[in-house]
Amino acid sequence: MKRSTILIFGCFMLAGQGTLRAQQVNPRVPPPPPPAEPSAAPKTAPASTPPDTSAANPATAPPAATPPAAPTPPIDPTVPPPPPTEDSEADTPAAPAGPVFDPLHAQRSLDIGTFYLRKGSYDAAIDRFIEASNYQPTLAMPWKMLGEAYEKKREYAKAVEAYNKYLRILPHAADAAKIKKDISDLEEKTAQEAKP
User: Fold this and answer.
1) Are 128 and 116 in contact (CB under 8 A)?
2) Structural domains counted in the chain
3) Strands, DSSP E only, in the chain?
4) Which end of the chain has less Cβ packing within 10 Å, N or C?
């Protein structure tokens, strides 16, 4: 009984295999072109053509000939594109005004900024920490690292500002007391530099 069931099942599989092969698509063969869409016939007949008298007998009327579409000229890369019109500007969506939330890029920028800070490239580190804070504004660590970078670059006012932003985002941080002490020390240094 089992043998006959297997044979019947095998016959169905072999019979269905031909239809499956017919349905497979060969990736090396390009697809056929889409069917041409009929274009709208002109509503008024041109003056050079005689009036259509075959309307009385539609069986003898010749098929309407559609004019061929004009080929598009190739694009010349040396010619600049035309300026946008007012209509095209209205169709394009405006860029988002605020920061773009992207935690993956924020963490990546933070890691790269930390590398630059350890290396001594403070300007590159500052750029990366600012980028990380733009990608994820509620992340506190870029502001702390930004404060360290500004402090090492001896831009104490900017360091104080970055540390204050860190404490606003994370007021109960484990190192909040140390950061507050650093802020008071940096404010004293800023006051000393301001004196002539």
Assistant:
1) yes
2) 1
3) none
4) C
